[in-house]
Amino acid sequence: MKHVTVLFGGISAEREVSISSGRQVVAALQGEGYQVQPFEVTQDLGALIRALDPKPDVVFNALHGRFGEDGVIQGVLDWLDIPYTHSGVRASALAMDKAASRAVFAGAGLPIARGRVIEIGTLADADPLPRPYVVKPLNEGSSVGVEILRHGENRRHEIAREWRFGPQALVEEFVPGRELTVGVMGDRALTVTDIAATHAFYDYESKYVEGGSRHVLPAAIHADAFTQAMECAVAAHAALGCRGATRADFRYDDTSGEPGRLVLLEVNTQPGLTPTSLLPEQAAYCGIKFPSLCAWMVEEARCRV
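RE: above sequence
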């Protein structure tokens, strides 16, 4: 019987999401017959190290956001020589850094939005791109801190003044149309989900609050666009050097008809595993129940790769 320590909580803006994911994972792995030790991660790194002595067979990394999916905890686990789920240090760091991942995607010939990195203070002075455009933190997930500036709005000064995500930001053209996502397990794309958010865009609340969004799977889009999204998700997973499960997010501009323009936004190296999360929903559509998905992640765990 494998001994699995499930890490959840953490110190990022996505702590509550991670707690929800962790609880689901603990119950699923216990049902699959694993010996499970839940551990809620806090600022106390020493307590985490002590909790991993003696070493478990595998760490299930259910942390989200900074310090959980950006390569930091992965480096600690590599140092301790403990296999862990999801991607390793390099892929995690690249995927979490939106500027770095954009460069990787561009180098791989994948479709990305027009954009650039700015010093956040300059946003108060002038529009860095024609409106509408999106302002994003460089190292946050779950749409934390994302703002859309549309025609006629006067919020540049307010966003710059209240920005709390570091000295820089990524600005990208706003791509109209639909929000699509594709889960990947290993080298296999699961399906394409069309996400209809109840808010102006697919923000934090839309992702994690019951009824915050409606998921249509498989997405009712042109067959060529569907195939492109599936292939692009696998290619992005490979370009970053990911392992285990990931989820690629897209915008799909079908406002002038189909097939439309597909734009890759990001790859999530540790997709949510909450009751409203997309990856488990796609896995279930493909006949993979949640406990089996979690068990697959455990069996795919590695370190130092």
